[in-house]
Amino acid sequence: MPAIALISAVFVIGFEQLVQWTYGPMGIVGLLLLTIGVKARNPVCSSIGAVVLALMVAGPAL
Asked: Are the C-beta atoms of 19 and 28 separated by less than 8 Å?
């Protein structure tokens, strides 16, 4: 069981670093808001995080 937790933690940290490298600090803020909103079952917080991430991804196309 500890091996699964370690692999999961490495994956999450790697994903956060990838988002920060690609989208900068606002990408991390959006990912953080989305994660907190989903875990806390807060639709407002998760919606704001999803909108921030969507704007970061679609920004170059706009």
From this structure: yes
Cβ-Cβ contacts under 8 Å for 35 (sequence gap 6 or more): 49
Q: Please provide the DSSP assignment of 11-56 as one string.
A: HHHHHHHHHHHHHHHHHHHHHHHHHHHHHHT-HHHHHHHHHHHHHH
Instruction: Spell out the residues 6+ positions from residue 14 whose beta carbon is closer than 8 angstroms to its own.
Output: none
pLDDT in tens, the chain (62 residues): 688 888 888 888 888 888 778 888 888 898 889 989 999 999 999 999 999 989 988 877 76
61: three-class secondary structure by DSSP: helix
Phi/psi of residue 19, each to 5°?
A: -65, -45
